Amino acid sequence: MKSLLFERKGKFVLYVVACMFPVFAQIMQIGVIALVFETVERQSMTFFRTAIFLAVGYFFLSAGLFILSRMMRISFMRDVLLTLRLRAFDKIMRMSYKRFNKKSRDVYVSNLINDINTFESAFFHSLINVIFRIGVYVLAITLLFVLNWMIALIVLFTSFMVLGLSKLFEKKTVAYQKAVSSENEAFTLDASNTFNGLEILKLNNMEEGFLDKSHKKLYRLEGKKKGFNLFTNLQIHTNETLGYILFTIILVILMYQTQVGLGLGEMVLVIQLATNSIFPLVNMTPLLNVIKSSKAIYEKITTPEDEEEFSETRTLPFSLQNAITLDEVRFAYEDGESDVLQKTSFTIEKGKKYLLRGPSGAGKSTLMKILNMTIDDYEGAIRVDDVDMKQVSLNSFNEKVAFIYQDVFLFEATLKENVTLFKDASDEEVLSVCEAAGLKEMIDALPDGLNTMIEENGKNLSGGERQRVSIARALFKKAELLFVDEATSALNDELGRKIEETILEMKATVIAISHKTFPGITERYDGVLELKNGYVTPFTSAEYFEEAFV
Amino acid sequence: MKKRILYFLPMWKVLVVQIFIAATLFQLSFAMYDTINAALDLEWTLFGERARVMIMYAVLLLPLQALGAYARSHVIKTIMVRMKRDYLRGVFAKNINEFQRENNAKYISALTNDFTLIEKDAVEQAILIIQSIVMFTMGIAIIVIISPIVLLFGVGIFVMNIFVSLLSSKPVNKHNKERSEMMGRYSGFIKEVLSAFHIIKTNDLEKRIEENYREQSVAVQEKKYVIDKIMSYIFALQNMNFSLTFLVMMFIVSYMTIQGQIAIAGVVVVVYNLENVVNPIALISEAMPRVLSVKTINRRIDESLKNQSTHVETEAFDGLEKGIGFHDVSFGYDDTLVLEDVNVEFEKGGKYLVIGPSGGGKSTLLRLLRKYFNPNDGVITLDEKDLKDVKKLDYFGKIANIEQKIFLFEDSLRNNLTLYKDYSEEELQQAIERAGLSKFVKSRQGGLDTLIQDNGKNISGGEKSRIAIARGLLNNAEIIFLDEAFASLDRDSAKAIESDLLKLKGVTLINVSHVVIEENKEQYDDIILVRNKHVKSSKLKLVAVTN
Fold first, then answer.
1. Which end of chain B is more exposed for a tag (fewer CB within 10 A), N or C?
2. d(Cα B84, Cα B112) in Å, to the nearest integer?
3. How high is the pLDDT of residue B546?
4. How far apart are CA B63 and CA B68, in angstroms?
5. Cβ–Cβ < 8 Å for B366, B324
6. pLDDT-derived band of residue A290, with 50, 70 and 90 as boundaries?
């Protein structure tokens, strides 16, 4: 965190200085108010004009300081946030695919978007407030000691007292906050469970009892929230009122001192400084907490994760001649409740097309990750012909496989580069794979053909065309093994059909997850692997799609 | 749902307490006025008395403010409990098919997120507005008493203020819109990059991607910078506005004092009450848009509770005599047909196995049978009646449902089985026996009185299924619908329970399942294949296959 702020030392110093500007503006304002009272006491029009003159000066100076302060701060904020974005992204890019796969993609998306947004909206706001409050407190108390040491002592004492009192309230508030959060969880869980069972409740005419139960939970939750609200409000109002009481007491003391010749202006100055120095330090905890949590966010999204080294035993090249065989493969996630795969054996023959089916959540994607070497801590063995998959080098494997996903990532580069992924190739070569991928019509329609630029993640390409680009990539790569994950799920039936047909016509061995069935096409898969409750049942396509299984 | 405004009625409590607080502050201001006057007149005995009164009022504020804090939290609680209670009631009153059309998460999110927003943006802000209005009125009253002319100036400046803030909001909106579009694209880019992580890694494209990402990030941050820059001027303008108001008022008051129109003590009181006039305006102008913004949430909530189908059911039903029949039934959600021209008969007492690939229409067939939906075309007959017209309450009383996903709740095992209906101990034991639950019940220390905790987290899937089956058996239903009921049971248990269920005499059983247990297949009267929108009864084919 420090490195993030201190990287640009000069700019950070400017930032802190800029945070002090509002402090001066505040003190100046106090001065102006005192001046007005001095005017009233002196009853002199010349002094009145001087006061107006000074007030106008303050008015423009404070506006100028405000703008200057912000300008000095926002460019620093911009640079810091940009660095944060880049570091967070860099961290993810440095991960190995295996490491990357330990968490769901949504976690990274949320790191890069939500976490950074939270940081952006909260961190600097809290930081400037902390600096501002400390500044006001120190400056006001110092001035107060210069003006009236007795009042200064009273204020110093009171400010500590108020701070202590706030800490007392805070404890209670935090306890209530925790209670609210756990009650909230309980209530949500209960409501969610009840909603899940609403069908049964209705079918059995027993809604009333459950409505009652939910009401009780609701009442408990709102009760805790009431406690939380009460203490938060009590704290705010007690402080406010203490301020009032102190104000009246100081007023009385000062007025009594007027007897010995204290001017009204100075009196107001002292009162204003006093009221300004009681509360800045109160209620800093939420701000400090935000800074702390921002720091935690920063560390979470930028600290590199430990990489487990791949064992050096992966030395053999990947070469598929006959079949990939799974022999009693069993797998469960570390934190998972049950096995995703329970001792499963089946064979994938070279050149054949397999469809992976099963209810959602059954572990289809996990099985795919096991097959494509992303997950390798399974029990049992996977053999490529006679070679243990755990000995196959990752690089040689990656050279021979290709992936087609639901989302296709397109670079802001030419269509050709998007197909070759920036490797050298002749136009003819690329054109021929594009033709095989069904992209010919589109290329012919483009004025620049293969050299057309793909804009912003390919917004000038349709969903079907994007899938075809990813097929063309696989063809260009001459991938021997193709993993397809819901390639057609975002497409309409007509397009989906054509894409599926193209995939089935490829030479590679294909393992595809898809929940769609296109009559007349999907039956052309050679085999269906049905995954359910941890078991894989291999079917031939005929067995699966025909009525024979009735 | 009730008119929303009615929910806000309890706020009168806040109003009353706030009026007391304001009255005390009012008294305090004039006590201050008197005290200062005494000091200026150098009457120190009087000063002492008046100072004591002033401090007394200040101290009185302490309990009053505490009462205010209590009133506020109490009112929030009352209002939120009522709102959420009515919402729950509304959800419970929904037609089950319409309820299920939406993801449960939608209702949960309404209960949590939407109502939190309502609480923060409507309820809390409304309270703030009430308090601000009271404080504002008090501030105005004090200033009017001391000098009405000051107020006149105040109003003029206030009108000017409104103009300034109206003018200043325009230029930012455009940029904010652009930025939110930009952020949308940025998120899209990030999502796609992450989904292509594998491709990037296996093709050594990190550099290129980082460059792309950098460009986009710079653009996003630069846009924010531009907005921040504009905001600097706008904020400065708003600040100037406030300090202008404040300064002008102060100088007017002090000018009038110099002219002898106001007492010096008046200046102190007016100046210290200026914030009671200025702050409420700022608070209200912030709170108002928030309160209004809740409108869309309210509409969404109301929308989610509305029942679309209002078909009136007229036919009573007290038991199946002949059977259920589908006659040219077609059904679809929105535009896509799920079942087309379905004709199938379920005779009373018959046992039917419904199979077919997922997505073929099995579950929809079952939903039609359970009367969640009415067919778009064709008729489903229950004996001679149209199922559409049969009263839900009567029909549900005669059917039992056994699902894969079993609903358990925090109560005793007994109540989870009986669903709060009265059964004799014998009936209960028999159902437990037949559902294969005896071992489970015996293994628990509390037996039937064991508390199911955490909605059955520590009960295995198989045991849950058995509980559901026992419920069905207990119910003595005439029609039993099984929906993938055996999916989480091992094959032997499934076989035994299925065979038990198939032996029930006079009970019509319709089992929708992926799992076909070969040994029990023969005991079904018919196996019905639902595939690709069509339904095929294999009564004849079964004979052919066995031959």
1. C
2. 9
3. 36
4. 9
5. no
6. confident
Q: CA neighbours within 13 Å on the CB side: how many for B122?
A: 20
- With beta carbons under 8 A apart, name residues in chain A contacting B92: 198, 201, 207, 210-211
Higher pLDDT, B136 or A121: B136
Select the more confidently predicted residue: B250 or A310.
B250
**CATH number of the B2-304 domain:** 1.20.1560.10
Chain B segment 318-377 residues within 8 A of A by beta carbon are 355, 357-359, 370
Q: What is the pLDDT of residue A73?
A: 92
Give the integer Cα–Cα distance in Å for B83 and B4. Answer: 9
Secondary structure tally for chain A: helices H, strands E: 19, 10
Q: CA of A78: how far to CAs of A67, A91, B181, B199, B215, in Å? A: 16, 20, 19, 31, 14
Got the DSSP string for B116-170? HHIIIIIIHHHHHHHHHHHHHHHHHHHHHHH-HHHHHHHHHHHHHHHHHHHHHHH
Contact call for residues B191 and A106 (beta carbons, < 8 A): no
Q: Three-class SS of residue A375?
A: coil
A527-532 and A535-540: which strand pairing?
Answer: antiparallel
Say what the ipTM of the complex is. 0.76
Portion 408-427 of B in contact with A at CB < 8 A: 409-410, 419-421
Query: Per the CB < 8 Å rule, is B112 touching A184?
Result: yes
Query: Beta A341-349 vs A353-357: how paired, if at all?
Result: unpaired
User: Is the CB of residue A355 less than 8 Å from the CB of residue A525?
Assistant: yes
Each residue's pLDDT tens digit, B388-416: 888 887 888 788 888 777 788 878 888 88
Strands lying side by side in the sheet with B526-531:
B399-403, B479-483, B508-512, B351-355, B526-531, B534-537
Q: Which two tokens stand for residue B236?
A: 């400065």
Contacts of B98 in chain A (CB under 8 A): none
Give the three-class secondary structure for A515: coil
**Rounded Cα gap, residues B513 and B518, in angstroms:** 13
Q: Of the ranges A389-398, B95-104, B461-470, which one carries the lowest mean pLDDT score?
A: B95-104
Tell me the chain B residues in contact with residue A191 when contact means C-beta distances shorter than 8 Å.
88, 107-108, 111
Which range among B62-71, B243-252, B409-418 has the greatest average pLDDT?
A: B62-71
Q: Which residue has the tokens 């007491």?
A: A249
Burial class (CB within 10 angstroms; exposed 0-12, middle 13-18, buried 19+) of A360 = exposed
Is A342 strand, coil or helix?
Answer: strand
CATH of B323-537, one of 3.40.50.2300, 3.40.50.300, 3.40.50.150, 3.40.50.720: 3.40.50.300
Residue recorded with tokens 């990402």: B213
Helices first, then strands: H and E counts in chain B: 20, 10
Domains of chain B by residue range: 2-304, 323-537
Residue A326 phi/psi, 5° resolution?
Answer: -100, 125
Task: Retrieve residue A263's tokens.
Answer: 């001017």
pLDDT band (50, 70, 90) for residue A548: very low
**Which DSSP helix (H) or strand (E) runs through B546?**
helix B539-546
Residues B328-346 have pLDDT tens digits of 999 887 667 888 888 888 9
- Amino acid identity at B362: K
Contact A82 B233 (CB under 8 A): no
Q: What is the pLDDT of residue A28?
A: 93
- For A337, the token pair is 């409740």
Of A166, A286, A232, which is closest to residue B70 (Cα–Cα)? Answer: A232
Encoded tokens for A543: 């067995």
Report which DSSP code applies to B82.
Answer: H
As given in the structure block, the two tokens for residue B100 are 């299920």
Q: Which of A31-35, A360-364, B177-181 shows the lowest per-residue confidence on average (mean pLDDT)?
A: A360-364
